Amino acid sequence: MHDTGEWQALSSHRQALDEVHLRDLFDGDPLRGERLAAETDGLLLDYSKNRLTDETVALLSALADRAELRGQIEALLDGEPVNTTEDRPAWHAALRRPDPPPEVGLEFDRMAAFAAEVRDGRWDAVVNIGIGGSDLGPAMATAALGAYADPGLDVRFLSNVDGAHFGAVTRGLDPARTLFIVVSKTFTTVETLTNARTARAWVADAVGPEQAGGHFAAVTASPDKAHSFGIDADAVFAMWDWVGGRYSLGSAVGLSLMITVGPDAFADMLAGMHQIDEHFRTAPWAENLPALLGLIGIWNRNFWGWPTLAVLPYAQELALFPAYIQQLDMESSGKSVLADGTPAVTATGPVVWGQPGTNGQHAFHQLLHQGTDIVPVEFIGLCRPNHSHIEHHDLLMANLFAQVEALAFGAPDAGDPHQQFSGNRPSTVLLADQLTPRTLGQLVALYEHKVFTQATVWGINPFDQWGVELGKTLATDIAAELTGAAHPNPARDSSTQSLINRYLSRR
Ligand code: F6P
């Protein structure tokens, strides 16, 4: 893309904006705030406080056309093999269609029946065991939709292989009344299987080994492995190789969420996702929220050169949303090879980070306002809370509005240089009416398609993650050495070897 006329036009245009301050852009254009915004089904995207103009949007739209984004969206949503390095579709959109493929509809019905049974049944607690995409989505969504939860059920998430996590998550639970859901697409992930085995022993100690299997359900694309683990076929839910882990919340990976909020609320979330899928497919670029978010991401990353992105929800219920988006974006976009195997010559994914406001204001906003690096921010706010403490909500939102204003316009005239705020720091605001299951579905799909938009322009495949494999292989080898099952590797570097030696002599 970097050698196209569209890319070059954006480069020159960016240089022309070098000295332009957001104050100038707003002062000279009273309608800027209303115009540089887009809305779909109650979700507003205000992107006016980015360092761009109407011309930028037109040039970015031309870049999207040049990257054939429209055709790529069709291919994505219609289940074509867009995951080219693994030669399969990335068809998460099929999970939320009103007319899903038959196997998807069947699995939804099985999940709904199982969820209803669990909600009425003999369990006090449900523990989801999984990691990465098999944890972050359901954990994030279960926290986000706490207002819709069955108050009688304690739903927890166990991910880290650190035994401290097992201890913390099971603390206070009765093994005789706890159901574990082992979620692993591959059913080979060492953290998940280690936790699952420990959980099985913990249950077996209380109820006996014969009964322990009945305390387990599984979600996997490898049902045979789940059966071998001792999980009954009735309690094994399918996912398919065309559902990527970080795109899997709408599949049976969301079973713990469905148990928490019920099948109807889960279906509402799917409907919100589908609404964004269709919006992404049909809306013109200047009105297309995921495309705009992605194209502005390209603008900030490639043309301004800003290396990180903060995602800051002003909603405590969305506390895990930045971590969820971090996996979605960084595992998808952290690539230095294009889909065709050639090296990337432009920057790809930024470092994505964040935590909820207003807490972050008392931690890292100092750097956002006065640091030497510019950090674009995506703020997420809600017009109506899911609680009755309106005074708190007004204060929360006042802080969000104040932050975007301070970042954009600053306060340059203070006499003391330490108290000057240069402003001109870009931010985007997503404003939804209320955090409902539908809204959450919209937000998830919005970010999925933002990532897809960026990947399409960069020419990378966002649906593989080969970069996680080397660490897994090395950890397996080193684990064998730590337990004495293998001899030290003589080829190992001196630093790693002396760390291992010190660990072994002191553990
Ligand atoms: O971290 C790598 C990864 O493969 C993620 O992409 C995935 O979400 C996670 O591990 C868990 O994988 P699985 O669901 O197969 O246990």
Keywords:
507 residues; alpha/beta; six-stranded mixed sheet; five-stranded parallel sheet; globular
Question: Using only CA atoms, what is the Rg?
Answer: 24 Å
| Subunit arrangement of the protein | single chain
Instruction: Supply the number of helical segments.
Output: 20
Q: Helix/strand-derived class?
A: alpha/beta
Instruction: Describe the strand arrangement of the main beta sheet, using strand numbers.
Output: 1-2-11-10-8-9
Number of strands: 11
What coarse outline follows from CA principal-axis ratios? globular
Overall mean pLDDT: 97
Can you give the helix content as a percent range? 40-55%
Please mark out the parts with pLDDT under 50 across 5 or more consecutive residues, or reply none.
none
Cα(first) to Cα(last) distance is: 52 Å
Bound molecules: 6-O-phosphono-beta-D-fructofuranose
Largest sheet: 6 strands, mixed
Strand content: 5-15%
Task: Give an overview of the whole structure.
The protein is α/β, with parallel strands linked by helices and 507 residues long. It is built from 20 helices and eleven strands. The strands form two sheets. Strands 1-2-11-10-8-9 form a six-stranded mixed beta sheet, sandwiched between helices. Strands 4-3-5-6-7 form a five-stranded parallel beta sheet, with helices on both faces. Helix 1 packs antiparallel against helix 4 and helix 7 (136-144) runs parallel beside helix 12. The model has no long low-confidence stretch (mean pLDDT 97). Bound molecules: 6-O-phosphono-beta-D-fructofuranose. The site of 6-O-phosphono-beta-D-fructofuranose (F6P) has 14 residues, from loops.
